[in-house]
């Protein structure tokens, strides 16, 4: 199932603590995802991922598209007017497209007032701070998807994983998740690594 976290019901998502700047977590999550995408080898593009509707190639294209949508939202645009997958992106253009889109996100979100501004997302509207937490979660979980599919072992920032886990715990119910693009949570040991608990809550099997 496609795990598009932009479609997480807005009524269940709140912003992180006011003492934090959610933009910084988002930019760190984007940077980690970018390093993981950059390390994918050409022969791995057609490999399946734990996000079962996406191959490695398709998931990388999806993340570039999400970057473009985040920048568009930061400028007051409606993200539903942009595609969810960057199908125009050839295999030789990952790094250039990623770097350009990441810079665009940073520029579009430079004004701290965006954290309280209402942004248009697929499921409705959210304050920028809450939207940043949702997108941080999306990039963190999809980085795990890519890393798992391509045999990588990223260094997981405990703060980013904690932000993502808290956001997804609030956003997703324990039981059936009708209407949300997630499978039911997978059981893991209480003392499992934080990244395992995050992806298990999002329906992945660590």
Q: Which characteristics define this entry?
A:
mainly alpha; 206 residues; single chain; two-stranded antiparallel ribbon; globular; Four Helix Bundle (Hemerythrin (Met), subunit A)
Task: Describe the protein.
This protein is mainly α. The protein has one domain: Up-down Bundle (Four Helix Bundle (Hemerythrin (Met), subunit A)). It is 47% helix and 4% strand. It is built from six helices and two strands. A two-stranded antiparallel ribbon has the order 1-2. A hairpin with a 2-residue loop joins β1 and β2. α1 packs antiparallel against α3, α2 packs antiparallel against α4 and α5 packs parallel to α6.
User: Which sheet architecture does the biggest sheet show?
Assistant: 2 strands, antiparallel
Domain unit count: 1
Rg from Cα:
16 Å
Number of DSSP E strands:
2
The fraction of residues in strands falls at under 5%
Spans where pLDDT lies below 50 across 5 or more residues: 7-19
From the coordinates shown, what is the CATH architecture?
Up-down Bundle
Number of helices: 6
Quote the average pLDDT: 87
**Distance, first to last CA:** 16 Å
Helix content percent band: 40-55%
Q: Under the CATH scheme, which class?
A: Mainly Alpha
């Amino acid at each position: 199932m496609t795990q598009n976290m932009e479609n997480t019901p807005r009524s269940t998502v709140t912003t992180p603590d006011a003492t934090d700047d959610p933009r910084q977590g988002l930019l760190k999550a984007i940077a980690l995802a970018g390093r993981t995408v950059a390390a994918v080898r050409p022969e791995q593009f057609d490999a399946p991922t734990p996000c079962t509707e996406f191959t490695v190639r398709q998931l990388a294209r999806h993340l570039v598209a999400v970057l473009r949508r985040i920048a568009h939202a930061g400028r007051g645009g409606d993200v539903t007017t942009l595609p969810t997958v960057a199908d125009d992106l050839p295999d030789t253009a990952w790094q250039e497209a990623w770097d350009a889109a990441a810079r665009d996100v940073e520029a579009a979100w430079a004004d701290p007032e965006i954290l309280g501004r209402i942004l248009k997302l697929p499921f409705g509207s959210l304050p920028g701070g809450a939207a940043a937490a949702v997108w941080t979660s999306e990039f963190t979980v999809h980085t795990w998807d890519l890393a798992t599919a391509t045999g990588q072992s990223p260094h997981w920032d405990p703060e980013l994983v904690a932000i993502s886990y808290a956001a997804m715990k609030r956003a997703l119910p324990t039981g059936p998740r009708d209407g949300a693009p997630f499978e039911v949570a997978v059981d893991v040991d209480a003392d499992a690594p934080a990244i395992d608990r995050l992806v298990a809550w999002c329906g992945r099997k660590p």
